[in-house]
Structure formats: C-alpha cells, structure tokens
Write a structure and sequence with these properties.
binds heme C
Length: about 160
C-alpha cells in the first residue's frame, strides 16, 4: 500500500486507520459495479419522439395487461447496471404475453424509450438504436430516488 500516508504508520492512530481501511474496502466493492467510463441511461440515450412512439405502442399492445405504474415499478430495479440488451431480449422473447415477439425490433426499442421516460430518465437528441450496438454497451441506471436502499439487492 504505497499510497498510505507514512505519517499514519508512525502515529498509532486507533481511530483513523480503521476508517481508511473501511473506505478502501468500500471503494473496492463498489467500483467494479459502476465503471465510470460506461454510458448509461443517465446519458440521454433516447429522444422524445421515440418515447412518444413507444407510448402509442404500449397503449395498443401492453396496457390491457399492464397499467402504466407497472413500468415504473420494482421490476426495473433488478436491471440496475445491466446492459439494456438483456431487458430488450426478455421483453422481445416474452411480450406481449399472448403474442411474444410480434412487434419489430425497432418497436421494442421504442417501448424501452417509453419505459425509460416514464422513469424520468434524461431525454436527448438521438434515438436509441438497436442496430448500432448501443443496447449492449449502454447500462440501465435508474435515478437514485428509484433505488431505495442504494444498490439493488438483485445484483450478483
Ligand atoms: C396478455 C397479457 C400481457 C400483455 C398484452 C403484455 N404483458 Fe407483459 N407481462 C404479462 C404477465 C402475466 C407478466 C408476468 C407477471 C409479472 O411479472 O407481473 C408480464 C411481465 C412483463 C415484464 C416483466 C418481465 C420481468 O420478468 O421482469 C415486462 C417488462 C413486460 N411484461 C412488458 C410488457 C410489454 C412492453 C408489453 C407490450 C408490448 C407487454 N408486457 C404486454 C402479461 C402481459
């Protein structure tokens, strides 16, 4: 531990050392889950037009089984820090429940934009595109207010 200020090694400070160790351990635990360089849904990755298209699709294909509250509910918390692709694949493979995969990829992407907008995630200029690899690299990151208790208990 080269970075350890050498003064502490000489002072026998009983209070400060445990605190520094605690901080170091905490940083080590949290850092891999939130790599600073990853883009996320906090970086305005969809636009308003797209979210509105998604809203119309949801009204047509989803609301008979899910009210709007469902899409802002706890289900999304388990996706915290996961690539958008996982949620895209799940919805596409299973929804609408009576006709899984019935919509086009572009439409499932619009639905995701709608779900993100319902969760007050930032809206940008560009649409979310399922073809450019962004679904795999952009992580779902909800607003802190949505994440009661901080980090999701569902994370590995
Ligand atoms: C015929 C009824 C029905 C329709 C239509 C439907 N769903 Fe579902 N959906 C369900 C049921 C049932 C579940 C599983 C029960 C639950 O988890 O609440 C579910 C679960 C989900 C989940 C949670 C998946 C998970 O495991 O976290 C999402 C997201 C979802 N639906 C999105 C949609 C979207 C988007 C649409 C419109 C394209 C849609 N659903 C249309 C019945 C439906």
């Amino acid at each position: 531990m080269n970075w350890w200020p050498s003064a502490y090694l000489w002072t026998n400070d009983v209070n400060l050392k445990p605190a520094l160790v605690y901080l170091a351990i905490n940083a080590a635990l949290v850092a891999p889950l939130t790599p600073a360089e990853s883009r996320s849904t906090q970086d305005a990755v969809f636009n308003q037009t797209q979210a509105e298209r998604g809203a119309r699709l949801a009204a047509k294909h989803c609301v008979q089984c899910h009210d709007v509250g469902y899409f802002t509910g706890v289900f999304l918390q388990s996706w915290q820090n996961q690539p958008i692709q996982g949620l895209f694949d799940l919805i596409r493979a299973t929804m609408p429940e009576d006709r899984p995969g019935a919509l086009k990829e572009r439409q499932y992407t619009d639905l995701l934009a709608y779900i993100f907008s319902l969760n007050d995630l930032p809206v940008g200029d560009k649409k979310l595109d399922y073809k450019n690899g962004n679904l795999k690299t952009v992580l779902i990151r909800l607003n802190q207010s949505k994440m009661q208790g901080g980090i999701s208990p569902n994370l590995p």
